[in-house]
Amino acid sequence: MINIIWFLFIVIGVIVAVFTGNITAVTDAAIENAELAVELSIGLVGIMALWLGIMKIAEESGLVNILAKAVKPIMIRLFPEVPEEHPAMGAMIMNMAANILGLGNAATPLGLKAMKELNEINNDSDTASNAMCTFLAINTSSVTLIPATVIAYRSAAGSANPTEIIGPVIIATLASTIAAIIAVKSLQKLPRFSKTNPNNNKKIVGSK
Amino acid sequence: MFVEIMEGISKYAIPFILLAIPTYGVFKKVKVYESFTEGAKDGFTTAIKIIPFLVAMLVSIGIFRASGAMEILTSVLSPITNKIGMPGETVPMALMRPLSGGGASGVMNSLFEAHGPDSFIGRLASIMMGSTETTFYVLAVYFGAVSIKKTRHALPAGLISDAVGIVVAVIVANIMF
């Protein structure tokens, strides 16, 4: 799916640009975004190092395990493929907590740490496991209690009540998180996705 | 009340975590400095690993955005969304949100300027912005960090959840405002 969508963005973009006269804008966008991607990645180095360092202390002191035990009933249902005591559980919990609190810049490093741990128990280093897809879906829809940036933009624009959107945002993110979980769990049962599960014991014959 | 508590939490959360975790570590006899640097080592390699994935994603989305294709899509979709209580002006917001966080902020701010943040359009755009994520970016970064190329059902699941988020945002906005 991602191959098709990625390709479609480029094909539609270039063809439309020929007709709308935006072809130079397309050239600029391609170059600028390539540079931006590197800037964004490099910009992650410091914040990654900070949170991975803190996370390591939390791990070695046993704090992550305590946290993991507390929410175990939910986690084992969401991620049945992940062993209960695995460090991936702790990292995922820390990431979700950061997301809920609206700590975006802590959430990403913790999420990446979780992905790394999930990769340790993945049989194919090229293909996403069910647990990774579930984690990602929850992440892209994550429940937010405080949409801090939106509130900041609203008050900057002179809103009389910048925080009035908090309630609606909580309702909408709850709905999208539930939808994400249902979608990811249903999709993984579809033949085209269950067949590509890297942790299937069945040998996949003639694929690729 | 709720708002003040929540704002307090987001203000104190990071300093609190930065204090609490090392304190607990010292209490548990962890060599905190050594342990921190050991963990922090991975920061650089992880960030570098993401680069090719993010370049691929941002370039293709950038081309699509710059071409004007979104404007065409907006004019096709607006008459339909108008009927379900979603003003056509907010369609670019819904289309942009999964593709680009910066782009979506830009759309939201221009809607604030044109209609005011307390108009129906302004409120709906705010709810959309706050309740969905930049799915394509998250996908590139998270899978990129572990060099996963075959993403299976992660993208469709993410997009379904974005769509549900947008629809619920429209419904809630229509009920409340």
Give the proportion of residues in helices of chain B: over 70%
Largest sheet of chain B: none
Which blocks of ≥5 consecutive residues of chain A have pLDDT under 50? 202-208
Protein chains sharing the most extensive interface: A-B, 112 and 100 residues
Shape of chain B: globular
Kindly estimate the percentage of residues of chain B that lie in beta strands according to DSSP: under 5%
Tally of extended strands of chain B?
Answer: 0
Structural class of chain B: mainly alpha
Q: Domain count of chain A, please report it.
A: 2
Compute the separation of the termini of chain A in Å: 15 Å
- Put simply, the count of helices of chain B is 9
Mean pLDDT of chain A: 88
Oligomerization status of the protein chains: heterodimer
Q: How much of the sequence of chain A is in beta strands?
A: under 5%
Summarize model confidence as the mean pLDDT of chain B: 90
Instruction: Give the termini separation of chain B.
Output: 21 Å
**Number of distinct beta strands of chain A:** 0
User: Which outline of chain A best applies?
Assistant: globular
Question: Radius of gyration of chain A in whole Å, from Cα?
Answer: 20 Å
Structure description:
The complex is a heterodimer of chains A (208) and B (177). Chain A has 2 domains: 1-45, no CATH class; 62-194, no CATH class. Chain A is mainly alpha-helical and 208 residues long. Chain A contains 10 helices and no strands. Chain A is 72% helix and 0% strand. In chain A, α1 (2-20) runs antiparallel to α2, α2 packs across α6 (104-120) and α5 packs antiparallel against α6. Chain A has helices at 2-20, 23-60, 63-70, 72-78, 87-100, 104-120, 130-140, 148-156, 166-187, 191-194. The model of chain A is unreliable at 202-208 (pLDDT under 50). Chain B has helices spanning 2-27, 32-40, 42-66, 69-83, 91-96, 101-115, 120-131, 135-145, 154-176. Chain B has 2 domains: 1-40, no CATH class; 42-176, no CATH class. Chain B is built from 9 helices and no strands. With 177 residues, chain B is an all-alpha fold. Chains A and B meet through α1, α2, α6, α7 and α8 of A and α1, α2, α3, α6 and α7 of B.
